[in-house]
Amino acid sequence: MTKVLVLGGRFGGLTAAYNAKRLLGSKAEVKLMNQDRFTYFRPALPHVAIGVRDVEELRIDLASAMPERGISFAQGKVEKIDAESRIVYYKKPDGGMGEEEYDYLMVGIGAHLGTELIKGWDQFGYSVCEPEFAVKLRDRLKDFKGGHITIGSGPFYQGKNPKPKVPENFVPQADSACEGPVFEMSLMLHGYFTRKGMWDKVKITVYSPGEYLSDLSPASRKAVAEIYKGLGIELVHNFRLKELREKEIVDEKGNKLESDLSILLPPYTGNPALKASTKDLVDDGGFIPTDLNMQSIKYDNIYAVGDSNALTVPKLGYLAVQTGRIAAQHLAKRLGVNTKVESYYPTIVCVADNPLEGYAVSVKDDTWYGGQVSVAQPAAVNHLKKELFTKYFMWTKGDMVLEKFLGSW
Ligand SMILES: Cc1cc2nc3c(=O)[nH]c(=O)nc-3n(C[C@H](O)[C@H](O)[C@H](O)COP(=O)(O)OP(=O)(O)OC[C@H]3O[C@@H](n4cnc5c(N)ncnc54)[C@H](O)[C@@H]3O)c2cc1C
């Protein structure tokens, strides 16, 4: 039987696997491999840091969720893909090595969080990108007695060559891989410290490796700058983080910002497993260039979805889900299923939540790609949308079949 192997068990991989199985049924065996048995709803990890959610509420057990839908699951850390011989090499949980053959491969192992690129990370770095980081930050915030807090993202090491085979305006060059969580966290901290009666003891600085939120329209950026001004949050552009110290952070040019607590979205680089794979599968940054059907431009039996795909800029869950759906539809059509293949169209869709103050800013923007849509709306109902979206993800175990219609992150 045709074997479809999906690598990665978060937005991109889960969407690809669920949709492939739904469309292909008994025409193919679908197997998903992820390095961990459990996967977490990442957009609510900032909520863990401010103590409004527990990590356990956001956890899905792939070892039971996959078989429930007729998908087999293997826990394994992909070491490399040999695209010529169609074999994935991986490390088993017991440390032994394994090999997995495939007919079709869907790669959704995301990008790499390059914490090793920031000096002082181990001693002074805090983040919300993975569950263990969010818990560590929650504990630090509980004890924080006041002082300077910096929040920002490290540089994005985006690939440049070869380019995806898509309209050029779909893949802008970005200084940061994703600044939505930085914006969200800055709002949340206002709520957090206001509730504790400590806002006057805290000085927050938000920094960006380029122009902050450059993926939004000038009007939306201006609105954000106004919000920050109103809250007394300082905004620093073009600060490419290099080092964290006990009381300050330093950029590549030697500029410094005072910082008693340094929260960051680490630099994004290509996944090491992809960098170690067949050379012409990836671009010079370690991301997989594809066409609009998410098919590798070199290996037509390999699809890339989500953050692993060179096409998705910024690295956004909304785009991961869209690319996962398209890859599954395209593969199913190739294998004889009468289905429509959606057209990829990039848009920034996200919701920056501030639960402790009961509102969220809902963003929809395609101006970076040459479109006309630019919405950035703070409203109480947007907080409710984020709540519902979290519940929807957990309820469906990441199979967000209605996301296209309800889509509001
Ligand atoms: C704190 C935070 C909040 C966010 N909030 C939002 C939001 O509100 N809205 C939005 O649209 N986007 C949001 N994003 C972006 C979004 O989370 C990512 O774009 C999305 O997770 C990408 O999904 P993915 O499946 O492509 O990759 P990932 O989420 O990175 O998932 C990759 C999966 O593959 C596994 N994996 C990695 N390497 C290997 C390997 N070698 N072998 C096997 N498995 C491996 C990982 O464990 C993981 O399960 C947020 C990001 C962060 C960091």
Question: How would you explain this protein's 3D organization?
Answer:
The structure is a single chain. The protein has 409 residues and is α/β, with parallel strands linked by helices. The protein has two domains: 2-112 and 269-344, FAD/NAD(P)-binding domain, CATH 3.50.50.60; 114-268, FAD/NAD(P)-binding domain. Helix content is 28%, strand content 25%. The chain has helices spanning 11-24, 45-49, 62-68, 121-124, 131-143, 180-195, 218-231, 272-275, 317-334, 380-396, 403-406, and strands spanning 2-7, 28-34, 38-40, 59-61, 72-75, 77-82, 87-91, 97-101, 104-107, 112-113, 125-126, 147-153, 202-207, 234-236, 241-244, 248-251, 256-258, 261-265, 268-269, 302-304, 348-354, 359-365, 374-379. The protein has a five-stranded parallel sheet with strand order 5-2-1-9-20. Helix 1 (11-24) packs parallel to helix 9. Bound molecules: flavin-adenine dinucleotide. Residues 7-13, 33-36, 39, 42-43, 45-46, 77-78, 108-110, 128-129, 178, 180-181, 271, 273, 306-308, 315-318, 320, 350, 409 line the site of flavin-adenine dinucleotide.
